[in-house]
Amino acid sequence: MRFRKKQRMVLVLVALLLLGGASALILTAFSDNITFFVSPTRLQAMEVDENQRLRIGGLVVDGSVKQQPDGSVLFDVTDVNHAVTIRFAGVLPDLFREGQGIIAQGYLGGDGVFIADEVLAKHDENYMPKELADELKAQGYWKHNEDGETAQ
User: Would you call 37 exposed, middle or buried from its count of C-beta atoms within 10 A (0-12, 13-18, 19+)?
Assistant: First the structure.
C-alpha cells in the first residue's frame, strides 16, 4: 500500500513536470509571434527592445505624409497627446489618408522612428480599430460615438 502511494506521487510529479515543460515551450513559441498594441503615448513611456514587434495605432497627422527619395513614406501618427514618426516602404492602403485612424505593425528603430512593414487603414467611415478607439476613449478624445456621430 505504501509503495503504491509513492508510485502515484512520482507519477503525479512527472506529469506536472511534463505539463510545466510543455507550457513553457508553448509560451516561448507564442512570445515570438505575439505583437502588442501600443499608442504613441504609451510608446513614449515604455522601454522597447530594438527588435520587439509592436502594433502602433493613431490618427495620421495632417500634412505629415512625405514621400522619400528611396521610395518609402514618412508620416506621423498621433493619439492627440504624442506623435510618432513612422517609415513605411511599400504600397499604402487605398484608404490611407491624413486624419484617419491606422494601425502599423513593425518595430521601433534606434533613431526613434517606427519602421512599419504593414499598415492597416480603416475600411469604412465609421470603423476604427478597437485598440485605437479604446485608447482614444481612455485619453478623453473620441471622434465618433456608437451611432457614428461626432461626439467630441
Answer: middle
79-97 residues labelled b (16+ CB within 10 A) or e (exposed): bbebbbbbbbeeebeeebe
Beta pairing class for 114-121 and 83-88: parallel
Lowest mean pLDDT among 26-30, 52-56, 94-98, 136-140: 136-140
User: Whole-prediction pTM value?
Assistant: 0.65
DSSP string, 80-108: SS-EEEEEE-SPPPTT--TTSEEEEEEEE
Residue 31 φ then ψ, to 5°? -65, -25
pLDDT tens readout for residues 61-105: 999 999 999 999 999 999 888 899 999 998 998 888 888 888 999
